């Protein structure tokens, strides 16, 4: 296996199908790639080089720890109240818990980030403002979210060493299904300068129940079809896949509807 560095990664990403001027949303595991000279910043630099100045790179920049540690407590004792007070408010520069590569994007000058306390998205490039501008507090991965904006931009989904259990577009697709699974989000938020706890509804977690199978079914059905194809390549030690968001979300919406109905 050749040593991975920024120059080689550019060639690898282009061979996988990353094209100049496109919009790509990346879900990634740096460790799965193996040793990379320059680490996560080199991976991000290579992706930006492959996309060119006309392309836009987006990453989930989620912060699930910005959450109520005692969501079901009607009456708090002193210890629980103190735990709630220790939960930080979301801020645009807050590190994400999604790994080294999203944090490398957050470190870039000029990147933008949507404002949701738990499920923000970061992006850099000409379409970054469009991707990050709108995100409602409730149903934050739904029709008024960065994922809807990415879909409208015909984004490509890039999975670097991770599976469809990490593919956030599956949450967006499930949100389009009537009767989808639901969960509560609860997080601290500033309202008129006062810290309050906000509770909203969103698509429920999958926990590996349906998402890996739905992703695999799409890959089996659409591999090799022009415009809908899944591109595969081993980069370093990682199995990597590139697929178009529009047909993937439509397929996932239909399939998840069937699975949830049954």
Automatic annotation (TrEMBL):
Q: Does the keyword Thylakoid apply?
A: no
Keyword line: Acyltransferase, Transferase
Question: Is the keyword Transferase in the record?
Answer: yes
Among SUPFAM superfamilies, the record links this protein to: TTHA0583/YokD-like
InterPro entries per the record? Amioglycoside_AcTrfase, Antibiotic_NAT-like
What does the similarity note say?
A: Belongs to the antibiotic N-acetyltransferase family.
* UniProt name for this protein: AAC(3) family N-acetyltransferase
Organism of this sequence: Streptomyces kurssanovii
